[in-house]
Design brief:
Layout: H1 15-21, E1 29-32, E2 35-39, H2 40-47, E3 56-58, H3 89-92, H4 98-103, E4 107-110, E5 117-120, E6 133-136
Antiparallel strand pairs: 1-2, 2-4, 3-4, 5-6
Length: 146
């Protein structure tokens, strides 16, 4: 049996990079917290495989802010920051752009089953490796997405 760990690309700019990844330029597959956000084309592909325990709910585009961070130089400091210097204020203080929201792909949320538990042993962690992550399958119901 194979298990795959989905991780986000390491975001530049610390918390700012994480905030930008959940904005207008959402990657096609984006894990956040215990959920996975996917665009329509990925959803359609996954549905072809009849995976057990794969449930989708439609994501909401509550507040889409036009921040063209993809064209910023990653190795440079952030060109502009909110007055508060808090990254979430790009979103909280920004104005929703309905036209931009309509241009975006539909977003679907996958909620993995709570039938298995991820165990993290930080004492075993090796830089850039996943050897410190294991699964406790005691309550697993053979769902493909955990």
């Amino acid at each position: 049996m194979n298990f795959y760990l989905i991780r986000n690309r390491k975001a530049s700019w610390g918390d700012y990079g994480n905030i930008f990844l959940i904005g207008t330029f959402l990657p096609a597959v984006y894990p956040y917290n215990k959920y996975i956000a996917v665009v329509e084309s990925i959803k359609q592909t996954l549905e072809k495989y009849d995976l057990k325990g794969l449930d989708f709910s439609k994501g909401k585009k509550k507040k889409i802010i036009p921040i063209d961070w993809q064209n910023w130089a990653i190795e440079e400091p952030i060109p502009r920051k909110p007055k508060s210097v808090e990254p979430e204020d790009f979103i909280l203080k920004g104005k929703h752009d309905e036209l931009l929201a309509n241009e975006m792909d539909e977003i679907w949320i996958i909620s993995p089953a709570d039938t298995a538990r991820v165990v993290i042993d930080r004492d075993k962690k090796v830089h850039d490796e996943c050897n410190h992550i294991s699964l406790d399958l005691t309550g697993w119901n053979e769902s493909d997405v955990i």
